[in-house]
Design goal:
This protein is of the alpha/beta class. The chain has 12 helices and 13 strands.
């Protein structure tokens, strides 16, 4: 059996359906209508120990509901979860001591006391030996740069500082499984880079199994080799990012920087719009060409451009992962 097994997982919510108008509101007082909303609709996947997996989907896709079931907060309507030998909703007291959780908009730190005092309280809650606690805190402080605000109240921290503390707090007891729900939401590039680097080190050093949900696809590209895509409660894709690009990343881009703006007409003449080639002007000398690699090859396009006009610089780019994901959401399949 895999380290984490999720089989045919379903979660339905009974939602009150309001009637319209004053008379409808009056009737609702005595007779209510409900509808069943499937938030997660029969998904299955498994993780091996030490995997770092991205779990993505649009708003309302069922990501947070899945994580709440995997952490034991919600009980599934049907299906099964086994994580590290536990059934989260049945063995919750023991299971929660073996996981770490970060919800981007919620805090597990005490608002009015110093960060280090919150860490000490968490050490006692999770029964972490003093020696292990000090070693991990020193390691985390070095990687995340916590020393400068360890003795400041949480309410005085910036969002970036607080999220670094939240991530450290979730990992102080060295859990084998960590769930991260939007851990970099609202952060600047420097704070994001700090947290990403820290998570990479933790995953590599301790073989921690990490499930990451985020709307920032640069997080996924930076951290995860494998990605699971969900929409409307259903699983759309489970595999590597590289495989996803091969299957759906058919459009590539070539950026071209000309020697002289006088060559613009000759440059456009060299391109074959009939083969689905389009281009945008980034400035007078720089163009971005988009093309379908099934209809035109980069080598042929570059050869025609270089033969026609002097070029200062030219390079090929793959289709951005954001565009590939949008295609999947639009098609509803891979």
């Amino acid at each position: 059996m895999s380290f984490i097994e999720v089989k045919d997982l379903r979660r339905e919510f009974r939602v009150f359906k309001h009637r319209e108008g004053v008379w409808g509101a009056f009737r609702d007082l005595f007779q209510r209508n409900y509808r069943i909303l499937p938030a997660v609709d029969g998904i299955s996947f498994s993780f091996e120990k030490g995997e770092f997996v991205g779990y993505i989907g649009p708003n309302g896709a069922g990501k947070s509901t899945t994580i709440k079931m995997m952490t034991g907060i919600l009980v599934p309507t049907s299906g099964e979860i086994v994580a590290n030998g536990f059934r989260p909703y049945a063995d919750r007291a023991r299971y929660t001591k073996s996981i770490g959780v970060v919800f981007g908009q919620r805090t597990q730190l005490w608002w009015d006391i110093a960060v280090v005092e919150s860490f000490k309280l968490l050490r006692r809650i999770y029964d972490v030996p003093e020696k292990d606690y000090r070693e991990r805190l020193g390691f985390f402080s070095e990687l995340l740069g916590l020393d400068e605000f360890l003795h400041s109240p949480v309410r005085k921290l910036s969002l970036g500082q607080r999220m670094r503390c939240e991530v450290a707090a979730a990992l102080l007891h060295n859990p084998p499984i960590v769930f991260l729900d939007e851990p970099t939401i609202g952060l600047d590039l420097v704070a994001k880079d700090r947290i990403r680097g820290f998570l990479k080190d933790i995953n590599r050093t301790f073989k921690t199994t990490i499930l990451l949900t985020t709307h920032d696809l640069s997080d996924i590209e930076e951290l995860c080799r494998r990605v699971i895509i969900i929409d409307k409660g259903k699983l759309l894709y489970d595999g590597t990012l590289d495989e996803l690009r091969l299957r759906l990343g058919r459009r590539h881009m070539i950026s071209v920087h000309l020697e002289d703006r006088a060559h613009r007409e000759r440059f456009e003449h060299a391109l074959d719009a009939e083969n689905g080639i389009t281009w945008d002007n980034l400035d007078d000398l720089t163009f971005r060409i988009r093309y379908n690699r099934e209809r035109a090859s980069s080598a042929d396009i570059i050869r025609r451009i270089i033969h026609e006009v002097p070029v200062r610089d030219i390079f090929v780019e793959a289709e951005p992962i954001e565009d590939i994901i949008k295609t999947i959401y639009g098609q509803g399949k891979v």
